[in-house]
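Thread: quick sanity check before group meeting

JM: Hey all, I'm pulling together slides for Thursday and realized we never actually wrote out the predicted structure for the chain we discussed last week. Dropping the sequence here so it's in one place. If anyone has concerns about the input, flag it before I start.
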Amino acid sequence: MSNGCDAAGAGGGGGGAVRLRVPDRAQVSMAVSSPDGLVGPGHRARVVWAVVCAMDLAEFAAPIRARDGVGGRDATDPRLLVALWLYASLRGVGSARELARLCRESAPYRWLCGGVGVNHHLLSDFRTGHAAALDALFTRTIAALVGQGLVAVRRVSQDGVRVRASAGASSFRRGATPAQLLADAEAHVRELASLADDPARSAGLSAKKRAARVRAARGRVERIGRAIAALPALEARQQKQAKKLPEARRAKQRPPRASTTDAEARVMKMPDGGFRPAVNVQLAVDTQSRAVVGVDVTDQGSDNGLADAMRAQVERRTGGRVEEHLVDGGFARAGLVERAAAEGVTLYMPPREPCNRRPGAGTGAGAGRPGPKRTGGCDPVPGESPPLAEWRARMGSEAGKAVYKERAATAETVNADLTTHRGLGRRLLVRGLDKAKCVVLWSALAYNVLHFAAALVA
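JM (edit): ok, ran it. Output follows.
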């Protein structure tokens, strides 16, 4: 039988025909195998499954309607779906369609499935459809590590990273444009609904395709409606920020815009200096164990005002008390320092001005020449409150600088790990802050499972 191409039969240097091993794809063979042989002992897929089997997933199973004595198809085991998304997050897979393909073609994913079929609809719905259960699972995982003495939240470092949102730059509209788009979208829904009453127009269009088109059109109406609802809050935020701007800049401001595909996405400055639709992902890391102990996703482009909420979240999840909080200069606000001091928290945060710098310390004219001292750095400021004076003195000391170095070695490296290896460095494939937080929680949970698997199985 032909294999699709002819074997090379040219004679070699010795005059005989070249002997080759040729693929024979029509050859029938009998083999005895089981899914358990797809991966070897100690494989990461086995580790993930062992950790998942030790987890309490009752909250994921509670909504399942397939019960003994009730008719209907059996539901897919939540342990399998949790394991698939954890393993996918470890491998940097963030697409439900890609995960479904891997479950058919890749040995580790096939081993996890164990003969159970999954499709991308099931995987996608599960990833973002159990937000409360996923958040509680993350909390229980952290609590288990705290109970074993592996995580102590006495010192916590925090860092933010902007992740590209699932919204196009051209989807941001202002003024009356969203209302016009909403009217057009509603008219399109009515037009699609009328197809069922017109056999001539719906000829050749199956009921499944017609329902899919109506569903997509209604989804667009809903997204545009959310964009219109978001505009008043954006206008109020813009007016509040405008009070701090000079009159000339305030006069040039244009009305705010909202995305008609993801109303909760905002145009932010990205790490490469460009401006794109994004969300702000905040992570808190225990400096002792390097475990992720706090996760948040906001639509705020800056980190101002995000430290207090993160500290409260970490204490709620762990039951411990944060005594030292390490953040970067983007969080710098006088009120933050004073609030932390009132709570008995020692804040390590560099002042906005470089410590003990003088004008002309860089290159160019006057470089190297001493000048008058700048205030706002680590130097004392007359009339400042005692907490602020203590903070400046702390950040100007060698001991304070040594402690602050732990932030880069913990929070920043964990952020780099999640963006480089756990799928957060690419565009989010979900819309809305709640679904985006689910994706980040999967990545953070996978990171903790990777580093503390032995403790979580015990």
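AS: nice. The radius of gyration is 29 Å. DSSP finds 16 helices and eight strands in the chain.
JM: adding both to the slides.
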